Amino acid sequence: MTENAPNYLLLDDASLLRDCEVDKYRASGPGGQKRNKTDSAVRIRHLPTGIAAIANEDRSQHVNKRRALRRLRLMIALEVRTRVDPESYAPSETIRVYITGGGTLRIAETNESYPIVVSEVMDVLIACQLRISDTASIFGLSTAQLSDFFLRDPTVLRGVNQQRQRSNLKPLR
Predict the structure, then answer these.
(1) pTM of the entire structure?
(2) Strand bridging mode 20-25 / 51-55
(3) Which of 4, 15, 58, 77 is deepest in the core (most CB within 10 A)?
């Protein structure tokens, strides 16, 4: 899907939620009486893209809503693309901040900029026809360092490998 992912990712939580449908439901499984009697699980579906995320780990609906929203942002980052020309592309200030002097892309998954960084890396990866070496070169990273960035987060790795599978390429490991 090609749209304008950064616009969605730059929205504050309230603005993003205005474009979403939020469902609350009872989660099954362990958690005691409270979990089985209250609608603590949350499913958020982003209406413009159809992307959905759920959270049901906590007994608190508010905690689950925050988790589902964070997951939704990451899913948007992985699935919604902005076209990039690899010949003229230059990394944004947002991503340059997280490239260390040693040429490593380091950002915590809990950092609010994480989905934006993931989105930008994915946009360039797609523009480079999923070639890790070309993408790494654009960011001033080694192939191993970029691969490590993908391997650190199982959700990101799954997203990259889904893209690679669609192009009949071997998965990253």
Answers:
(1) 0.88
(2) unpaired
(3) 77
